[in-house]
Specification:
Helices cover 49% and strands 14% of the residues. It contains 19 helices and 11 strands.
Amino acid sequence: MKRFYNREGEMAQLVEMQRQAFEDYSRFVVLTGRRRVGKTSLVYRLMEETKEQGPGLYFFVGRKTEASLLRTFCEEVRTKLNEYVPEGITSFRELMHLLFEIGKRRHFTLFIDEFQEFDNVNAEVFSDMQELWDRYKKETHVCLVVSGSIFRMMEKIFKDEEQPLFGRDDCTIRLQPFTTATMREILSDYKPDYTNDDLLALWTITGGVARYIEILMNNRCTNVRKMLHYVCGSGDSFFIDEGRSVLIQEFGKQYGTYFSILDQIAHGDVTQGEIEASLGVKSLGGQLKVLEEKYGIIRKKRPVGAKEGSQTVRYEIQDNFFRFWFRYIHRYSSLIEIQNLPALEKIMADDYTIFSGISLERWFRQKMMESHNYKTIGGWWQSGGTNAKGKSDDFEIDIVAERLDGQVEAYEVKRNAQKYNPARLREKVEMMQHHLFRGREVTIEGLSMEDM
């Protein structure tokens, strides 16, 4: 993608932090967000657009020795700041000390990418940074931006009271995937005559993650067939290994159990009991709590109106790409191992209509959230009856939303508009009103791909 899409709000925050740093004194910005969401591109854009106010330095913390990283960082300082950097600097502390001294007389932006990797290079860097920042902040003009893709580590570094950098940031920005409107704009640029099925496929596979969209668009994969074919194009396909590489970084050695849980959720086991029964494990409450609260990979779903402690809980994978990856790539890894990717592609294509139906519901919920017109958006189900699979969803309503003005709306979501049954939805709403929204009017409507 050649254009720079969206991010106006985040860019405005960064520009304001930079202005304060240059005009007043140094500012410390923490930029987080899942891998591939566009953090590096955002800060590069900042440095490019504001280079007249002050130069920008880029330090990428790879898994190398400190000495190796320092050689690269020192050269960056010499080139971008045109400042003398003596040979023989042996620690990141020495280099930061030099940069803060330069910051007393010059304005510049320092961007440290994958900051959490210092934990593997030299964990003392965090204490050194804290000491130098506290000493130099008020007498320098440095806009310090650090980013990281491993949520668990970034939370520990900056939110744990026992860590040296706790409370040192002036601003934390959590970069989210693209909005539904931005995804529509991007697809329109690459395929002006796109269909809503094309848009749904892009959402289903990428979930709005910038890098995934960029790869598909740059390869002209603008419809379902082309996208699925590209994902399964070869054994070394970017998408084949992506889920594993991202999540193993997050989970570490415990990834096996977490992968098993996510696999079951992706395939329809959505309650704790169902997951435990499928895996033959007595209690997974602790692991589910970690996946939700520590990693933010899954989230609880309760019926609208249910109390926080209610046991009527279902789980879902928050990230569309991980949901897609576990549904197909992780589950059918044996096909990948024997290079039978055509078979994998056929499985995806045959199942896509059913799988994307849930994505369509998620699309409408996301679109409603982005409108900022609602105070509650969720679903509702009656836990009394059971269907053929033994699941208590006889009276399930796909979306129940309460607007800021108090108006209540209920929606049934179908890929095909002709399958919408208003009489059945009204019956479900009447059942819901025995428990919730008594005496209040609830408007009902069907949503389909035509409404995207």
